[in-house]
Amino acid sequence: xxxxxxxxxxxxxxxxxxxxxxxxRGLVLAAVYGFGEQPMxxxxxxEITEKKKLCLTAAKVYLMRWRIEEYFRFxxxxxxxxxxxxxxxxxxxxxxxxxxxxxxxxxxxxxxKDDTIFMMELKECSKRIYDIPKLIFYxxxxxxxxxxxxxxxxxxxxxxxxxxSQQLTLAQCFGIGALE
Length: 180
What we know:
Helix 3 crosses helix 4 (137-149). The chain folds into 2 domains: 11-66, no CATH class; 84-154, no CATH class. By secondary structure, it is mostly helical. The chain has helices at residues 51-79, 89-110, 117-125, 137-149, 170-174, 176-179; strands at 11-17, 27-33, 40-44. It is elongated. The protein has 6 helices and 3 strands, in the order E-E-E-H-H-H-H-H-H. A hairpin with a 6-residue loop joins strand 2 and strand 3. The N and C termini lie far apart (66 Å). It has a 3-stranded antiparallel beta sheet, covered by helices on one side.
């Protein structure tokens, strides 16, 4: 499927090759036609047992790896991780953990149905000219930033406040809290 949700038919073939630098190492070059104008060339050290199975495995592994790279790119761009200045490795780990939590939350939200009121409002806040693409992480990240930027107290205003009970507790009755 392409980024517009249209099904693409690809052709895959492979051939055994040897590189000048590694003449004793057998490699396989898999060519995938249909993703763009030029074929996608994948070099692998997997051995050929079944030609079709090897080509499909190489292409699927590469595309899964591409999703992982897209995830890290999203985290770095959306949260500005490369622009942060901290003094310790633990601070970097903490910031990365919070960015991972936020990206995970956005991922969970993106798997929700598109027709919920929450998702429709977030899409409206994302200010997209065209329809939301299949990878909506950037649109949802922008929408969340836009919503939270309008608040003066951060997320504190979104947390429901617990109403104070009119009934006295034992500590209040005997003045225990006042002694401390």
